[in-house]
Amino acid sequence: MNGTRPPQKKVIPISIAIVIFEDRVLVGKRVETSHLGGMDEFPGGKQEANETADVCAIRECVEETGLQIEIDELLHQEIYDYEDRYVELTFFLCHPINAEETNAMSEPFRWVKFHELDSLSFPSGNDRVLQILCDHFS
Hints:
Blueprint: E1 11-21, E2 24-29, E3 40-41, E4 44-46, H1 53-65, E5 69-81, E6 86-96, E7 110-113, H2 127-137
């Protein structure tokens, strides 16, 4: 061993909008070339410098789906250890501001029933929030 330490993993703050409308939740598909590509996801992404988690969740949802949302409550927060990075995940329960917009979202996002969530392929960092959603909405 040459005495050098392996590089420290970065901690990346991620905000996620769990958008609920009627008896469905908004789900998309990660771009194949991205980290965890091809997996299912809720709208969300990395916080920008000096951006709060709630503002980030709203911004990311609008950027990814075109849907304006309002946050109802903080649903879950945790630091998850992926092999190459830590992610600080903050999940917010949200609803659309304008119900008429719910039919005109950007692909690859779509509405799924809560009972369908267990058949989808989410990154493992979503396991706890998926269990919370299952317990409360199924």
